[in-house]
Amino acid sequence: TVQCPLAHCLLCVQVGCQYGSSRLFSASRDLTVLMWDLHGGDQPVQEFCGHDLVVSGLAVSPDGSQLCTGSRDNALCLWDVESGECLLKNAISRNLVTHLCWVPGGSCVVQTSEDKMVR
Length: 119
Hints:
Layout: E1 12-17, E2 23-28, E3 32-37, E4 46-49, E5 55-60, E6 66-71, E7 75-80, E8 86-91, E9 97-102, E10 109-113
Antiparallel strand pairs: 1-2, 2-3, 3-4, 5-6, 6-7, 7-8, 9-10
């Protein structure tokens, strides 16, 4: 495992944010997601590690308290934004996650995958 403190080691593949917030999230080929405060300097304020392959999708909950990430490892992770703790990890057989979208006003995440399905 490559150790890269305070920054991504490899190409960023996704970014996301919460409307009205200064937080920005970046997903990378280094298997991590970083949270940045756009008004807080040039270093990330939180790191989310738990996927086994490239993180290919991310979505922030409407209230900003949770982050959902998807990966080429066929897994979705639900994170607590403040603590960085993985609350739930769910593997979906033969389903390479490509994009995620948190449904506005709800508790549902929509996910697309390379099998041409929307879930």
